[in-house]
Amino acid sequence: MEDVVVIGAGLSGLTAAQELHQLGYRVLVVDKSRGLGGRLATRRIGATVLDHGCRYLQPFADLELSPIPALLASGILQPWQPEGFELSADGLLTAMSPQDLYVAPQGMSAVAKAMASELTIQRHWLATRLTPLSQGWQVEGTWLGESEQDKPKAFAARAVVLAIPAPQAAALLHTAAQRSAGIDDLLHQIQRVGFDAVITVMAGYGPDRSTRLASQERADGWMIAGNSHPTLRWIALDSSKRADPPESVIVLHSSAAFAADALDQANLEPTGQTLLAEAAHLGAWMLSPDWMQVHRWRYGFVRQALGAPILASPKLTNLVGCGDWCSGSGAEDAIASGRQAAAAVVTALS
Ligand SMILES: Cc1cc2nc3c(=O)[nH]c(=O)nc-3n(C[C@H](O)[C@H](O)[C@H](O)COP(=O)(O)OP(=O)(O)OC[C@H]3O[C@@H](n4cnc5c(N)ncnc54)[C@H](O)[C@@H]3O)c2cc1C
Question: Whose CB among 101, 289, 305, 321 lies 3.0–4.6 Å from 311's, allowing a Cys bridge?
């Protein structure tokens, strides 16, 4: 039996698992994906590396929580100083003052890999059911890998951390056999959390084409934030994060309203083209990439947070939830919540 099973190897789950592992607990992390990091995601397309999830880290409000100094010291993170623009609702660009942004030239998932280096992680394993045991939980799941390997169908643990987006955590809580007052309390709290979807377009333009914006003054990278634009939320020359990129690449994130309409399209190719056509108003070259890929984030950005550092009930102390959705919407919130979840588990197991 494990001391703790952490479901989800995103920033919050890895933080909770790291803390508990360092305190000497026997911890197993499971994640349904092949890679680590959840929304801290990196895609490799041939020799090209790009970040199609979390774009950068910004200085943390709580310095004690911040992994940025250690990640800078180890060379995993580097400052990124693109020329920044704000995109107005009617499509006009204005210059933004520079911000402190930190990126991983190897791809943002390098941050997750560094955090996971001492942890035991079962990847490709989708947790599907929770069942209470006399002293803990059984977590049942399905192996999603391609090989016919004989993977365990269940893990038992004294405590479980649900480090997954709230709607997915709610689905797992609903499976708990013999629903108790504690489970019902967690389900009641979690229903106030809401997420916005995002449609992400990744597009490559080869090594030799000009990928400048008309309003650009400097010759290096750029990013555009469009918080009030009906279609576009953010676009950047992602290849400007890399030391020696083999080609120019942009990453574009849609607005929440656009994603809500397009989310369930079976074929996202036309949706990606619509987004590139919108972006082409800012640089005509964007309309005709050499290649394009489109990704849907069903649970992209937190719209409505829980309003508490973790999901917990005094009626059920050995099952807690954590993630960015507990108290905010970004990397710092995920790490803060993971830290709090570990502290709650320590109390429950002591
Ligand atoms: C497009 C985009 C851009 C962003 N940009 C930024 C940014 O620039 N700066 C910033 O601070 N934040 C950004 N964010 C937000 C940031 O990425 C998140 O706040 C943070 O990564 C969330 O971490 P998490 O651990 O809470 O959740 P997640 O990263 O979602 O991790 C959850 C993990 O659980 C796994 N999982 C889910 N269900 C199951 C199951 N049943 N069984 C097993 N595993 C399961 C998933 O595979 C995933 O790995 C961005 C998010 C998106 C989508």
Answer: 321
